[in-house]
Amino acid sequence: MELIRILASRLKALFGGRRLDAELDDEVRAHIAMAVEENVARGMSAEEARTAALRAFGGVTQVKEQYRTRRGVPLLEQAWRDVRFGVRQLRRAPGFTATAILTLALGIGAVTSVYSVVDTVLLKPIAFRDPGRLVVMREAEEETEAGTRVMPDNYRHFMRLMGDTKTLEGAAIFDANGASVSLGSDHPRIVGAVTASPSFFRVLGVQPILGRDFVDSDANEGAARVVLLSYEGWQSFFQGDPRVVGRTLMNGGQPATVIGVLPAGVRFPDISIAPSLVTQSSLGAREDVIFEALRPNKFDLSADNSNFNYRAIARLKPDVTLARAQGELEGLQNAYSQSAHLPIRLGARLTPLNADVTSGISGALWLMFAAVGGVLLIACVNLANLQLVRAVTAERETAVRAALGASKSQLVMARLAESLIVAIAGGVGGVAFAVAGIRIFVAIAPGNIPRLNEVRLSLPVLLFAMALSVAAAIVFGILPALRSIGVQPQRALQRNSSRTASARDGGGTRSLLVGAQVACTVVLLIVTSLVLRSFSHLLHQERGFDTSHLTLAQVDLFSPQYGDNSLKVEATKQAFVDRTLTALGQLPGVQQVAISSAMPMTGETWIDELSRPDHPIPEAQKPMVNVRFVSEDYLKTMQIPLLAGRNFADSDRANPRVALISEGTARAGFNGENPVGRKLESIIPDGQQPVTVIGVVADTRINGLKNTALMVYVPYWAFAPWTPLILVRSTQASDALIPEMRKTIWNIDPTVAIPELKSMDEQVDESVATDRFQTVVLTSFGGAALLLALLGVYGVMAYSVSLRQQEFGIRIALGSGKAALIKLVLVQAATPVLLGAGVGLAAALLAVRWVQSLLFQTPVLDPVSIGGSLLVLLAAATLAATIPAMRASSVDPMQTLRME
Amino acid sequence: MVLKTLESMGPLHGYGIARRIEQVSGNALRLNQGTIYPALLRLEQRGWIKAEWGTSESNRRAKFYSLSRPGRKQIEKETENWERVAATMARFLAPSN
After folding, report:
1. Using an 8 Å Cβ cutoff, are A893 and A807 in contact?
2. Pairing relation of β-strands A289-293 and A226-229?
C-alpha cells in the first residue's frame, strides 16, 4: 500500500518535473531568506548573514539533486532522456539512420513475406491434427529381379493388416480421382473425388462443420449413397446453403445425398500412388472435392497378387516409432506371403506423411530456407557494419560525456537507446514490407498455385527475423560502446581532435564485414541466376510439337450411357468422338481437329510395359511407355513429324490394331532395329491381340517440359477414351473459339462435362507454374540481397567520406584533383568488395553442387550465370561507392577547414 | 524527529523545522539544514505529512508541513517502540541489586 503510494507520487513527479523544480527553488529561496532575516536580527551584517545562512544550509545543488533523485523514477527519467538524445543524434546522421532502418526493414520484410507464402502454399496442407503421427502406407514386392518394388495398396492386404496391427491407431484406404457432379439440371462439372474407407477423417483428425462424418455402415453394400463436401464444394454447388445436409446431387449420373461439409482449408495433399512414378495430378490443386465412402468391389475382396490400386494413410499410436510400425507391418506381410503361398513376397513401406508430400519439393524448400538465411545474414552483417561505423563518431561523444562525469552505465544506456530506436523503426518498416510483399506475391503468382488466398503473415518467422536483426542492431551498437568506455577520455579527446584519424579507426573490421556481405550476396546471386537460366531454358527448348494456335477441350464422358466396358458403350463413345470431330471441323477458321486420351503436361499417364511377342524382354528391363488413343489427324494438328513408316489412315478403321511409336520408344524397345512391321503386346485394354507398329514419330515433351516421353499411339477406333482431349488448331484466337467449342460439344451431348477448355499455351504455362514460382521467389531473394549489399557498401562509404571531410578539404586545398579523390574513395571501397566477391565465388562453387538437382539442363558452372552475377554485383558496388566519392570530390575546402 | 517536531509545533516550514531540531538537540545535531528537504519529501511520499503553500510570520511565501493522520499513528507506533526499547535497555543498564 505504502509502496504503491510512493510509486504513484514518484510517477506523478515524472510529468510535472519543471513545475516541481520551480517549487523546490521557491522553497529553498524562502529558507535562505528566513535564515538571513534571523541572522540579521541577531546583529550580523547583510553579507555575513547570507554567508552564514548558506553555510548552514549546505550545498544547494547537492540538496536539489538529492531531492530530485528521490522525487521521480530516475531510471525512467534517464531512459527518456536517452531516447530523446538518441533521436537527436540519429537526426543528425540521417544517412546512417535511413540506411540502418531500411536494411532492417528489407531484411525482415523479404524474409517474412516469402516465408509466409512458402509456409501456406507448401507446408500448410499437412496441417492435420498431430501430423507427426500420420504416415503413408504402401506395399512392397520384395526380392524381385529389380530389387524391392514399392507399390500401391491392395484392399485385401490392407484389411488384413488392420485386423492384425498393434502399432497403428487407425488407418484408411482410399483412391483419388475425378467425379462428374451436377445438381441434376445443369451441365455436370468435374470435381476432385476421394473414395475412402469411412475411417478416413477419423484418421486425419478432421470433423465436419455441418452434418456428420462417415460411419462404417456407409460402406456396406446396398447402403444409401452419401457424400461429404469440401468447404469449397459446398460453396460452389450450394452457395454455402446452411441446410445442405440431406440435399441430393448427381454423382456420375447417380443421385447421392449430402451428409456433411468439411471445414475450410481441409484438402487432402497429393500422395503419389507410387513414389517412382512422375505423375502430376490436378487433384492437388482442386479445392472442390467430394468424398465418398469406399465400397470394395468383388475384385477388391478377392485379388491377392494383383489389384494394387489404392493409397493408404495411417496414424501411429502415440508412443510407437515409425521403425517399429514398419517392422511390425513388414513382418505381418512376410508371414502372410508364406502362409497364403503367394508367388510374390510382400513387404510394407511407411513414410511420414509430411515427408511424402514434400518429397518432390524438399530440395526447393531447403534452397528457400538457405536463401532466407542468406538474406538475414546479409542484413545482420550490414547492421553490424553500420553500427561499427557509427560507433567511431559516438566514441568522441562518449569521451566527452565521460569527461563530464557520465557513469559507465549511462554511457552504455545512451548507445542502447539509439540502437533500440533504429531497431524498432526498422521492425515496424519490416512488418510493412512483409505485408506489402505478400500482396505483391499473391498478385504475381500464377493462378493454379493452391491456397494463395489463404496466405497470411507468418508470425513466428516475423518474430524470429525481427528478434535476430534487432539483436544484431543492439549487440553491435553496444559492443563498440563497451570498448570505448575502456578508453581514457583524455586520450580519446586528444586523438579525435583531428577527424582524419578516426576514419581509419576500426576500418579493418568494417572492411571485413563489407567483404562478408558481398560474399553472401555473390552466392545468392549466382544461385538465383542459375535458377533463372534454368527456367528460361525450360521454356525455350525444343518441345517437339507446336503449341501456338492450339485450343484444348477436355471432355469427360461420365454419364451412365458411357458407363461400362461393353461393346455397345464402346460404339457410343466412338460415335461421340466422331460427331465431335466433324462438328468442330466445321467451325470457321478451324484447320485441324484431333483427339488424344490425356491432357498434355500432366505427367505420365496410362503407363504400360512394352512387351514384344517376337523378342521377350526381361521383366526388369521392359521400358515403361505412355499409351495414347488418338485420331488420325493428331500428328498434323500437333505438328509432330513422322520419321518412318506411315500415319494412321481411314482404312485402319476396320482393323485398328496398329500403332505409331515415338523415337525414344523405338530406341528403348527395338535396340536400333527397324520397328515398322513389328508387333507389341497388350497395349489395348480389352484386347489380347497384339498391335502392329506402322510408323515412328519424333519425340515430344508432351507430358511435361522437363522430359521427352516414351509414347505409343493407337487409333481411338481400337479404344475410345472416357476422357477424350480434343485439340483444335485454328486461325481464330482461343478466347473467341472457346465459347463456340463449348456450344458445339454440348449440342452433341449436354450430359458430358467439359472440365478444361483453354489454349495449349496456357496449359504449358501452368505446367511450369511451380518452377516459375520458385524462380520468382529466388529472384526476389537475390534482389533483396543485392539491394542490401548496395546499401551496405553505400552506408559504409558515405559515412567514412563524411568523417574524412576535413581530410578531403585539405587535399583539395593542397591541389588534389576531383578525379584523384574519386579514385581514392573507389579504391578504398574496392578492396573489401573484390575480396568478398572472391570468397563468395569460392563459396558459390561449393554451394551450387547442392542446387544442381533443381536445375534443368543447366550446368552448375554456367559461365553466363556466374560472370553475369559478378558483373551485376560489381556494377552495384561501384554505383554505391560512386555517390560518396562524388561527394568527397565536391567538398568545399574553406568550409571544412573552418568547421573544427 | 521531524514528526515529533510537527506534533509539538503544529504546521511549520522547512526552515522552522530545521531550526527547531537544532534547538531541541541543543545544537548536538548540526546537520546541513538543506538535508531536511529530501527527508521531508520522503515523509510526504509515505503520506505521513502534508504540505501546502502558506505565508510565514515574516510575510514570506513558504511551504508549510503538517502531520497527517497516518503520521500521527506512526508517531504513536514509533514512540511505543522506542519506549519499549528504552525500557529494556534501562533494565539492562540498571545497577543490579
Report:
1. no
2. antiparallel
* Exposed/middle/buried for residue A160 (C-beta within 10 Å: 0-12, 13-18, 19+): middle
Which residues on chain A are in Cβ contact (under 8 Å) with B61? 26, 30
Contact at CB, A9 and B45, closer than 8 angstroms: yes
Q: From the centroid of its chain, how far is CA A199?
A: 32
Give residue A503's pLDDT band: very low, low, confident or very high (50, 70, 90): very low
Question: How confident is the model over A148-167, as pLDDT tens digits?
Answer: 778 888 899 999 999 999 99
Measured CA to CA, the distance from residue A724 to residue A372 in angstroms comes to 45
> What tens digit of pLDDT does each residue of A21-76 get?
777 788 888 888 888 888 888 788 888 888 888 877 777 777 777 777 766 666 66
List strands edge to edge, sheet with B49-55: B12-13, B61-67, B49-55
Longest dimension (CA), chain B: 59
H-helix or E-strand containing A383?
Answer: helix A362-403
User: How many helical (H) and strand (E) elements, i.e. helices and strands, does chain A have?
Assistant: 28, 23
CATH 3.50.50.60 fits B2-93, yes or no: no
Report pLDDT digits (tens) over A228-286.
998 888 988 899 899 999 999 988 778 899 999 988 767 666 666 555 443 444 444 45
**Grid cell of A335 as nine digits:** 508371414
State pLDDT tens for residues A170-222.
Answer: 999 988 777 788 887 778 887 888 889 999 999 988 889 999 999 999 988 88
Cα dihedral A52, A55, A61, A63, rounded to 10, equals -110
Locate the chain A residue with the closest alpha carbon to B38. Answer: A67
Q: Give the CA distances from residue A234 to residues A49, A238, A290, A643, B70, in Å, rounded to whole numbers and listed in that order.
A: 97, 5, 9, 51, 72
Q: Tell me which residues of chain A have a C-beta less than 8 Å from any C-beta of chain B.
A: 2, 5-6, 9-10, 23-24, 26-28, 30-31, 33-35, 37-38, 56-60, 62-63, 66-67, 70-71
Q: Note whether A27 and B63 are within 8 A (CB).
A: yes
CB B19 within 8 A of CB B11: no
| Angstroms from A5 CA to nearest CA on chain B | 7
Domain boundaries, chain B: 2-93
Cα–Cα distance measured from residue A86 to residue B47, given in angstroms and rounded to the nearest whole number: 37
Cell of B15: 526552515
Q: Are A659 and A626 in contact (CB under 8 A)?
A: no
**Maximum CA extent, chain A:** 144
Residue B6 in 3-state DSSP? helix
Q: Over chain A, what is the mean pLDDT?
A: 82
Strands, E, within A507-614: which ranges? 550-556, 590-596, 607-609
How distant, in Å, are the alpha carbons of A202, A801, A803, A852, A860 from that of A884?
66, 6, 11, 40, 36
The residue among A166, A164, A162, A163 whose CA lies nearest residue A319 is A166
Which residues of chain A lie closer than 8 angstroms to B47, CB-CB? 2, 5
How far apart are alpha carbons B67 and B69 in whole angstroms? Answer: 7
Residue type at B20 in one-letter notation? R
Bridge partners of A260, per DSSP, are: A211, A228
**CB A350 within 8 Å of CB A135:** yes
User: At A776, which amino acid appears?
Assistant: V
d(CA A583, CA A557): 17
CA separation for the pair B70, B66 (Å, rounded): 12
Phi, psi (deg, nearest 5) at residue A24: -60, -45
Pick A58's closest partner by Cβ from B35, B56, B62: B35
DSSP E strands: which ranges in chain B?
12-13, 49-55, 61-67
Output the pLDDT for position A281: 44
CA distances (Å), origin A181, targets A30, A256, A281, A291, A898: 96, 10, 19, 12, 86
Helix (H, G, I), strand (E, B) or coil at B63: strand
ipTM for this prediction: 0.74
